Amino acid sequence: MKKVMLVLLVVLAAGALAFAAIPQVTNQTTDILGAHTGYGRGCVMCHAPHSGSAGNGVSKGDATSGNYALWGQDLTPLYGHTLGFGDGGTYSVTLPAAGTITSAHDANTIILFCLSCHDGNLAKVGMMKGTTVETLPIVGGNAPTLLGNDGSTAGNYNNDHPVGAQAIVSCGGQYNWDCTGGNTSKISMNGPASSVFANTNYGFAVSFGTWGSTLTAVTCTSCHDQHSQNVYSGTMGGTKGNYQTAFFLRGYYNPATGGNNAAQFCRQCHGGESNEMHGQLNVPTT
Asked: Residues 4-26: pLDDT tens digits?
């Protein structure tokens, strides 16, 4: 009887592990660049191999155009502007002034680069139609892709997720993970709850930009991988592989399943709303 019970427990445990596994994807038939193929234009839409924005037919007298990341969009309308993101604009971002960029990986510069296509208010729209190429899951329709010209008040960024030097991911406290680090230190998901989330139930795929000495400032590419629209390649639930995603998001994200994976994506930073921080350690991603 004991032997039978032991076998049954092993089978049940194996079944639980299989149920918790996040499904991987292979052999999709659409280019991973998706919308960023620029209607066939490809990488050159953002990265001009020669002469910066002039190499893309736009010359605005920017002496440093293309010097970082071979950026081929016109940045002159955005240089030096201060924009307020999220919560009534309380997350203030001052974009670099002309000639002050020192790295393509600084969070401030990343925001500048992304807005050169995704602003639509100060910056001219380039090779974009202003709405997502993907249909919104469940509710249908399409979402705006021009943050400063989305149908609300022109230049309104209050309804956009906070980014910048004040949008910092922290550890501890009521709304955060039981991780270590945060603020100006690299985050380690090593707490009783955060480690289960990162290694078993989902993962930790967000990527923070540097902002001076701040390692956990949220920027556009913290949540989005601009080079892959439909597949996230990385480690989820402790397993390295390729996973379904949408809207260029970093991590397994497929709300059409009717499961909890969309919420799990957001919980990478918002640990206070996670299952694990509420004592529910055995809820898999579905």
From this structure: 444 444 444 444 444 457 989 88
Single-letter residue type at 233: S
Q: How many CB atoms lie within 10 A of CB 7?
A: 10
Cβ atoms < 10 Å from Cβ of 158: 17
* Nearest-5° Cα angle at 133, 132 to 135: 80
Position 262, amino acid: A
pTM above 0.85, yes or no: yes
Q: Rounded CA gap, 226 and 244, in Å?
A: 15
Cα–Cα dist 118/226, whole Å: 12
* Separation between Cα atoms, residue 235 and residue 233, nearest integer Å: 7
Q: Which residue has the tokens 């991603």?
A: 285
Cβ contact 240:231 at 8 Å: no
Q: DSSP assignment, residue 221?
A: H
> What phi, psi does 150 have (nearest 5°)?
-105, 15
